[in-house]
Amino acid sequence: MKRCVLWCAGLLTVAGGAWAGESWLARDGQAAAQIVMPEAATPVERTAAQELRQHLEKVTGSAFSIVTESSAKSGPRLLVGNTEASRRLAPDFLAAQAAYDSILLKTVGDDVILTGHPQRGALYAVYTYLEETVGVRWWTSDETFIPQLPDLPLPKLDMRYAPKLRFRESYYLDAFDALFKTRLKGNVSSRTRYMLAPMEMIPEAYGGNHRLIHFKGRNSAYHSFYELVPPNVYFDRHPEWFSEIKGTRTHKGAQLCLTNDEMRRELTKNALALLREDPGADIIQISQNDHAGRCTCKTCLAVEQEEGGVGTASGPLLRFVNQVAEEIEKEFPRVFVETFAYQYTRQAPAKVRPRANVLIRLCAIECSFLQPLEGSRENAPFAGDLAAWGRIAGGNLFGWDYVTSFSSYMLPHPNLRVLGPNIRTFVKAGATGLFEQGDALCAAGDFVRLRHWVLSHLLWNPDLDEGQLIDTFLSGYYGERTGAALKRYLDFIHDRAARSDVYLGCYQKNVTQWLDAKGIFEAARLMASALETAHAEEAADPVGRKGLSDKVLREKLAIDHVLLINDTMLRQHAVNAGKPFPGAPDFPTAARAWIAACERFNVKAYCETTSEATFTTYKKALLERSQK
Questions:
Q1: Per-residue pLDDT reduced to its tens digit, 386-415
Q2: Residue ranges per domain, the chain?
Q3: Distance CA 48, CA 93 (A)
Q4: Homologous superfamily in CATH for domain 5-161
Q5: pLDDT at residue 226, as a whole number
Q6: Distance between CA 35 and CA 77 in Å, rounded?
Q7: CA-closest candidate to residue 413, choices 434, 438, 381, 379
Q8: pTM
Q9: What average pLDDT score do residues 457-478 get?
Q10: Helices then strands, each counted (H, E), the chain
Q11: Residue 401 CB: number of other CB atoms within 10 A?
Q12: pLDDT attached to residue 596
């Protein structure tokens, strides 16, 4: 399949001269068009108009006016939102009936229509125009590329697009910034217990966000059984509400007894109370704890047997969740009840089907992320489960994908080549929502800015080419020469990993299973070469390339960490091979330099954790080792 159609076609609008006749939006730095809103513009339409004006003024150097339709003068118009003119000029597009988050960009004469679904469509249409036609790039939350175009032609647009994924979240620290998330068209704000920074909610004026009920005890939106039926409150009085394991009722490392009707009624009561306290939430998780320990009482096992055999624990879970969801729907008809297909509940049941208000969140935690989810030997069991859930979920299938190494963010993680294929696999199976869990605790990590940018674009349009997106970010964010040098490093890392054909899980503590000492030395050399290129570019253009070396130094932290944790083995390899060691002259110097760089780049965590103390302890251990 040929990918990246929307991306490329949009950029050709200006670069290739595909504009509508001799009309201009700006000419010689003077605005020649007006931004027009509906008479009774919604907050989102007002925001869309303001975002358009703000960016066009920076692009052209001219002042654009925002007016309502009745105040508009003759001349080119940028019609933002559900204007009367848009409805007249594009009668086949009815915003109220448009697909969720869909957009319309269409030029009719001297009018440019930028509209879409009422909730966010106008805003997304504006962002699409600015990015794909004008060439604006929101690289990170604090770095935007604005092209300088004093002459901006009236574009020739004819694009209608509805995202295949209704729920889109790329979970990186930079995405905690609500404006940046919105500009990259993310629309979910999830809270997990592994958060060391506050997450901003998207304001209603920017379309708002899908939001899950937040369970304060666990400081998370997920794994909610013990949040809704806490053992310290209920176990002594009702041990029968909790798992029976080897003939004994227990709450330790356990779950709930999902065939106990009395417990279900209590859990439902508690869930309804939380929804009343937070009327803005539109999803509540009714889901298993984050460990094993399912109930194996006679009744629960009988349900498993009916649903595909003992061990098909999704059967009791989904029957239970359906009953809870039925009660919740009576009071909160727009709220979804979400549950997991995760670890021991990953296999789809044979008989029960999710209710219309039940979301299934299928998790790929056991998979190998070097190989694609579809078509690989390693991930064949998951692919089978994904297909089975897709057949029964009725459009309410969500995915939970894992795109980092949670045991150590500070390692190369060679999964860039499967990001696009895996998203497309979820979509092909019928997924309508996807959570890409990255290293949301870490300000550095393994090219986290690149990953978030690429994933966000793929979530919006899975048919984009991930290779082209990677190249676009590398050349745009780092510059052509430095970006090319970093691409050589990334290609080497991924080629060596592919050659090893290793099972790459999401809890890796080292790289030595797929990258030997010789490979580590070469990777370090390539990264050092990229840094030299950045230094040279910055020296040649201190103003235009300011900060470039720091960007590369931040990416260098991962391979430097590999040198650090394998110091003894690698120094011996250098001696045996008669090669210079590609790092600091000794371990103490290397440890101090790496820690100083982490602190300089505001790194507060190197692995999945609930406390900054974990990294503090790790740094202390490195320093203590350096003193021996």
A1: 999 999 998 999 999 999 999 999 999 999
A2: 5-161, 214-361
A3: 19
A4: Chitobiase/beta-hexosaminidase domain 2-like (3.30.379.10)
A5: 98
A6: 6
A7: 438
A8: 0.95
A9: 99
A10: 20, 21
A11: 27
A12: 97
